[in-house]
């Protein structure tokens, strides 16, 4: 994984990782990209238009991972009530985590959403 801190490159690396997970596919329900497994979103990719700060939103059930994500600069519980369910929005601005850590969080989010058969496929691969 590239160690680049360029926000759009980091977003691209996270997107590529997410799309490589079993059963993952990209959708644009509100204009910005999301990656789903089945009909459920496991990562919001945020904007890539250069007008707004790119970001990544993931669901983190593990308390340590959730606390670590929330400690990132600008991180916040996700709006629309999603934060109560463990969703964290992390802007890809100055001081943001690199793609490797974000991909770890994307995998955790995937595991929280994906059906057991796809998680088994991921673990077998």
From TrEMBL:
<dbReference type="InterPro" id="IPR038056">
    <property type="entry name" value="YjbR-like_sf"/>
</dbReference>
<protein>
    <submittedName>
        <fullName>MmcQ/YjbR family DNA-binding protein</fullName>
    </submittedName>
</protein>
<dbReference type="GO" id="GO:0003677">
    <property type="term" value="F:DNA binding"/>
</dbReference>
<dbReference type="InterPro" id="IPR058532">
    <property type="entry name" value="YjbR/MT2646/Rv2570-like"/>
</dbReference>
<keyword id="KW-0238">DNA-binding</keyword>
<dbReference type="Pfam" id="PF04237">
    <property type="entry name" value="YjbR"/>
</dbReference>
